[in-house]
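User:
Hi there, any thoughts?
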Amino acid sequence: MANHIEMATGLLLPVSPTTANMEIKEDDHIILLGDNELQQANNIAVSSKDIGTSGYQIVTKNDSYFIRVGGDLGFQQAAISFLKHSIGYTRYSSNIVTYSKDGKTLPDMDIVEKPDFSFRTQSNKVETSTAYEMGFLTTGETFYMDSETQPFHNSFDYLPPETYKEEHSQWYSDKGNQICYTAHGNEEEFKKMVDEVYKKMLTRLEKDKTVGAFTFSIQDNTDSCTCQSCKENIAKYGAESGSVIKFCNALDDKIQAYLQEEADKTGKKKREVNIIFFAYNKTEKPCAKKNEKGEFVPTSEDVVCNEHVGPYIAPISASYTSTFYDDENAVYADNIKGWGALSSKLYMWLYETNFSHYLYPLNTYSTMIENYRYCYENNGMYMYNEGQHNQGATTCFGRFKEYFNSVALFDVNSDYNSIVDDFFTAYFREASVPMLKYFKELQDQCAYIEETYNTDLNGTIYNNIAQARFWPKGLLDRWSNYIDEAYEAILPYNKENKILYDALYSNITLESIFPQYALLNHYSGKYSAETLQERRENFRNDCLRVNVTRLNENTLIDSLFSSWGL
């Protein structure tokens, strides 16, 4: 916070911890972060509004500011809010930050806010400091404790078959590639399995006193246990997830008992620790049904998640160019709504890129906010909209999606068009007009081909979008001309502000990657050998400049350059 205030005003604020018996006088100018006792001593009223674990309250009294948070994550959000109101701070990307106020006059503040999604993770690969300054979690472990090796598909990390299977074969599915969450109906073995996982989680609980959740999730395959006990649970509860819920509830009972005992001993407030399981593949369907009013209700009280148990929902086969309000996604929308009837804590894992074709667009630009609203309405509390997590930098306006997520996940009622205008004005400056033309025409073309070729393109994340019939050469050439117009529009900065010029140039170059690549990929025969070589070299150099490193999730772009002899 102090760094940005210095950048905007030239004033470096001294930062120091509070001290015992510290007093804040009427003529002091202090920004107090936390220290509830000192705030109470200054008669700062605590708002009755719920601020959760990542919300905050900012109050002006005399010439000082008092900031209270609901949990450690609240400090991040409070700092961003204070900077926004005092110096007009906005972080758009790693190379673009704006300050629209000079800070000479500070407003009185009486702000109480809580993000719509308490926990938000960036979609693409974004450097840690930038993600933090945009309001995102910088690592999953800031809200969950994982197993010792990985946060997902980790049930075997807790119960490795090579360690336990010989003595406890009933802990594993018939095929041996998943946990059997009923222990094949053996109650004694079930209790031993719960105890063993609890024992390992307890070690983490004692070591880490701040993080608020565990993940215990199925292995990454489409199998599940087919034993008689599991079949009976499916018949009884209507879905395979029922066995997982009952296991996690039993585990949660032990964890909550430990946390209560810890609180009683220390005299401190009981820690909140949640258990997260995957609603994915065979466990994606909730144990819920519609009642006579058309509302989802549990099929049994046995499979209602405990207060501190929630599903991590990953509808990998949904159409992301449509919304969960659309008929195309009715099955996935019902799953989310059904889970909302079983748990007050839904952890959402959505998708916003084409994993087979990183350099081509997935037209989720305007559908994302509708999906966020739908998830929020149905008890969503965490959102990860997976993008190009292993790509150096994402073309097809990936930076826009990153900024969009920073705004829309905080407030799902944000206005989409306002976010677009705000981003393009700041991120491209004088080049915003041609870049906005390109962006809107790209969306229009995506919508056209999705409607025209709907048997080939259904909005899912592995569609073969890299076909010449979808991308006419004349259209790609026009978009390339917009890129040239954008470069020309920022030329004055090359003399006035070289740092800003280089940033804007790179921003434009990143968006040139798709039309460049599509022309080379589909129309290489239209160029002379000399021109083709030059265009390939320019494309490679631009990729190096902006750090585009992959063609798809599993293929480095170096393989393309090698095939070209570069």
User: Anything to note?
Assistant: The chain has three domains: 2-114, 145-290, 425-563. The mean pLDDT is 95. The longest helix spans residues 241-266. Residues 125 and 390 are 6 Å apart (CA to CA).
